[in-house]
Amino acid sequence: MALSKEQIAQRIAKELQDKWYVNLGIGIPTLVANYIPEGIEVEFQSENGLLGMGPFPIEGTEDADLINAGKQTVTVLDGGAIFDSAMSFAMIRGKHVQLTVLGAMEVAQNGDIANWKIPGKMVKGMGGAMDLVASAENIIVAMMHTNKRGESKLLEKCSLPLTGVGCVTKIVTNLAVLEVKNNAFYLLERAPGVSVDEIKKATKGNLIIEGEIPEMNM
């Protein structure tokens, strides 16, 4: 059974480590803040100038002036900080963020990522993703394995304009967890009830399968 967006975020949250600073991109990545494992402290950063983001606010308690980079209302934990974008990007460019979680429209087997533009559609620009993919050393992508037409989003080579080159380290989709290395997707885990054959059919890039592939422990 394929994972929901919330379950993808829940699985990515298992990658978090104590005292890490973590940047969450737009879309599925923002949900990761709702699933911090017990016993660890993590500081979530948003490039518009927030450090110490908490889970999404309960309906009716939103503060319209408190938003993340995707203009979604958020909460700030005790001790959180609000500052200008210049300081925020200095933090990112200075490699003070241990993990970046991004959404993607396509990922190539060499770690290229395309997540900002579909040709012919109006967009405001790449935004903070440009700095994140250039500076981060640990990028996990949260995405659906296929698009709405059932076509693979894990490719030999991206067809859309790139956001970053050779930067993705791991991918969590609704079907699987994969590591990106040696110009290939290495299958680490499969979603509960999803077979290796289903993942093969949904992956267009070079997929490496070594031994028995365990189900995700949700």
- Helix % is 10-25%
General form = globular
How many beta-strand runs? 13
Reading off the top of the CATH hierarchy, the class is best stated as Alpha Beta
How confident overall, as mean pLDDT? 92
First-residue to last-residue Cα separation: 12 Å
Query: Major sheet, described briefly?
Result: 10 strands, mixed
Q: Specify the CATH architecture.
A: 3-Layer(aba) Sandwich
Number of helices: 4
Spans of at least 5 consecutive residues whose pLDDT stays below 50 are none
Q: Note the beta-strand portion.
A: 15-25%
Element-by-element helix/strand order: HEEEEHEEEHEEEEEHE
CATH superfamily name? Glutaconate Coenzyme A-transferase
Widest beta sheet: strand line-up: 4-3-2-1-5-8-10-11-12-13
Q: What fold name stands as the CATH topology?
A: Glutaconate Coenzyme A-transferase
Structural class: alpha/beta
Q: What gyration radius follows from the Cα positions, in whole Å?
A: 17 Å
Number of domains: 1
Enzyme class: transferase
Protein name: Putative succinyl-CoA:3-ketoacid coenzyme A transferase subunit B
EC number: 2.8.3.5
Organism: Tenacibaculum piscium
Structural account:
This protein is an alpha/beta fold. The protein has one domain (5-208): 3-Layer(aba) Sandwich (Glutaconate Coenzyme A-transferase), CATH 3.40.1080.10. It has helices spanning 5-13, 85-93, 129-135, 196-202; strands spanning 21-24, 43-46, 50-53, 76-82, 99-103, 106-108, 113-114, 139-142, 154-155, 170-172, 176-181, 184-190, 207-208. The strands form 2 sheets. The chain has a 10-stranded mixed β-sheet with strand order 4-3-2-1-5-8-10-11-12-13. A 3-stranded mixed β-sheet has the order 7-6-9, with no helix packed on it. Strand 12, helix 4 (196-202) and strand 13 form a beta-alpha-beta unit.
